[in-house]
Amino acid sequence: MKIFLSLITAFTLVSPLVAQADAVQPAADAAEKGLAIAKDRKQRDLGWGDSEAKMTMTLRNSQGEESVREMRLKSLEVVDDGDKGLTIFDEPRDVKGTAFLNFSHTGKPDEQWLYLPALKRVKRIASRNKSGPFMGSEFAYEDMSSFELEKYSFTYLREETLNGVVCHVIEQIPADEYSGYTKQIVWLDTEHLRAQQVEFYDRKKSLLKTLNFSGYKLYKDKFWRADVLTMVNHQNGKSTVLNTAELRFDTGLTDADFNDATLSRVR
Amino acid sequence: MKRLITITLQSSALIALSVNASTSASAGLMPDLALQGAVEGRQFLQEAQFPQQEDSVLSVWAEPELVWEWGDTQRLTFKPFYRYDSADDERSHGDIRELMWLTYGSSWEVRAGIGKVFWGVTESQHLVDVINQTDLVEAPDGEEKLGQPMVHATWLHEIGTLEAFILPGFRERTFAGEKGRLRSALLVSDEADYQAAEEKEHVDWALRWSRSFEVAEAPLDLSAAWFQGTARDPFLTPDITLSGSGPQITGLTPYYPLQRQLGITAQATVDAWLWKLEVLRRDFDDHVAADLKTLGVAGMKDYSAAVGGFEYTLVGPFAERWDSALDIGLLLEYQYDQRGSDAAMAQNDVFAATRLAFNDADSSEILAGITQDLDYSGSRGVMLEASTRLTDFTTLKVNGWMFMADDQEDTLAYSLRQDDYIEVSLNIFY
After folding, report:
1. Interface pTM (ipTM) of the complex?
2. Alpha-carbon distances, residue B212 vs A58, A180, A227, A231, A237 (angstroms)
């Protein structure tokens, strides 16, 4: 669950100081500026602690046929490493009770476990499957891992107005050779540094997907989170809409709630 | 006649279960209710070995789940199960899969009641998995289990996760009846013999330690478990009757000795590789081998067994060329059992399989595999499991098994050689 939240937080953190400096930055400093914005963005989202949310994921194929997944997401911020997330599925009914535990890491591959309630079995998932689709959706596992500076190299591209909002446009190149992407282009509004849009480019460097964020709300007077994430796949015509129904912070989650040894009691 | 009685008994058991459920529900707290069930058709592809057996079987099962929760840290789960089978009286059966009370704190859990516990990492065989008895009439792979009475305490400690089990009450393995397929020529009796004087009332226990380590930035999961009590795997002793033409074997009686078992598992996760190993050591009391010999089973001894191998996942190999999200898993495992082919089916066998995960909206998957006996080149089993979602509350499954054996000396495999089948199952969830 943290996964989705992390995705949202990942794109919300850019600094106004950097924005003011835009006009005078020489092009050669693009990498430095890109990293500075990313650092600031990460810095601004520190301290969110823990959260719980209910989410609905609507999958649409190119014929417009829909199928809906419902899940609950629990997230825990981890200082000096990637965050922890637990996704519990409620719909469709055949996967009800299935739980997905994810530890994002900064210097090594993420760790993932799946709990299968029918077998009472906790299975570790091989760490290289990050480019695979999450629950048949247009979101890949790596789209849902927490945003960490070590996972990308950054380049500041330009300032641009997107849907009437002035944005920084930054290129992120994944450091992991097993990423499904060659690059991501991120639009962050200059006012609050919230992600407005992300473009994902596949291994052939073609545009694969576009992610749009809408319905931003402010939590704890500090943390912006989007209610609706829409991922459109340009190559297969499918799309996935992720709606956050309830999002609460400081729900008292601890490390013990994110443990493969206690995953079997999750419901 | 016997069949009628069985059905009557099972029906009354079912009624008892539903009475329990409604009583509890009316105690003031409404439970969360979920219901799973299926309609299954099994078609056997070869002529039956025995005259009473049928080729086409229709079967229906239901498994409701009721959950009551008090506050954040207390829960009661009740999950009865019942199957009706059109051919086999023994396969028409009910069980309490779960009736478990759970409470927990930040570093501990206590469970008491009836439930299921899974131990292990490998796919082709669950060697160290010993807490629950196998509900063998459910499926030949032995993956379905009977509910086991237990008190199960878990403690999350610095040295790893520590678990203790007290297991009062033994469950006997289920075996196919006269009209059922997937059985030996001789029927297995409902009356079992035990080494323990307390028979089914013997209290077994187990301890387990498990922990994850990090070796060269790759996770290494280790576990060790000790089990002491009545063996889950019975020895089948011949029933000998004297007739006019001399002594005849008329059936088999399960004999459950006491055993001490050490089980160790290891799993390393490296990139797209999962390396897996399960090792088992089982010891019996010295006199058990002699006792079994007088019952007609020779060669029983302490033994070791192991199963190990890997699962390698190709992530999206066709993603770029054909825009396919298909993942391909390749599984290879080797099975060893010190007792050899007299006592074990997986004594020197190789399991190879592929798992196709289509990653589509319907979560379609296919697992197809073959187990080849290296001692008997003509003995092998081929399995296929495919599933896809039809609607938000129904899934379709197709399971198939083919058993090949041409050598009568490989007795266990040979008895299944005419029982290839395809099973189509419509699963319903509410």
Report:
1. 0.86
2. 36, 28, 36, 36, 42
